[in-house]
Amino acid sequence: MMAAVLSLGSSLALAQPFQPFTASYAADMKNIPVNGEAVHSLAQNTDGTWSLNFHASMFVARLTEESTLRLEGEEVVPLTYRYQRKGLGRSRETTQQFDWANGEVRGVHKKEEFTLPTQPGLLDKTTYQLALQRDLMAGKTEMSYLVLDGDEIEQYQFRVTGEDRVTTRNGQFDAVEVQRVREPDARRETTLWFAKDWNYLLVRLSQVETDGQHYQIVLKEATVNGQPVAGNPIGGN
Predict the structure, then answer these.
(1) Mean pLDDT over all residues of the chain?
(2) 169 in helix, strand or coil?
(3) What b-and-e string marks burial along 112-136, b requiring 16 or more CB atoms within 10 Å of the CB?
(4) DSSP character for 100?
């Protein structure tokens, strides 16, 4: 879902280490009177690598994305990725193993094995989000990333389109609005909002699918680096 990659610039902000976080979101889809939940988290492992996880449960479907990664200087480096979707009659699983020493990534997508050569800056469908947050911290407004999407490498492009105050159950957040740049005739639309005062934590995502269906996730509660996230009082300045 969210599962809605990046070349990182040289900036002091990008040189900062990751900050662990856990965020829960309310998910809803227009015209369907049932809500769902999603949890997004980043935690450091004992070996110094990091785990980035996203779990969503909406209606009769469940979605899981799990990545392990490391930070090398200023670069986000994916190590493993797993995607699993169950329900709605369209169950699917994708796995990816990044073998940087041998310059290849191996995996399984739609039950078919594949092997591709790695490329500098290559990310998976969750780690690009970390790179995006770090680029926003560095003040970038146009971002482009190489992403391994299934068994194909694609170019993801994003653009800062403004600033907004996003209202959530946890208060209001001053946020940067970012849109996924697609072909002019594309029917799918993706817009994301990141809280400027909270390490550019995702506070809202809106997705319009090719069939016109619209869903979104909005922050319920979160912690960043162990600190509870709190927005401004609703209606305040």
Answers:
(1) 87
(2) coil
(3) eebebebeebbbbbbbbbbbbbbbb
(4) T
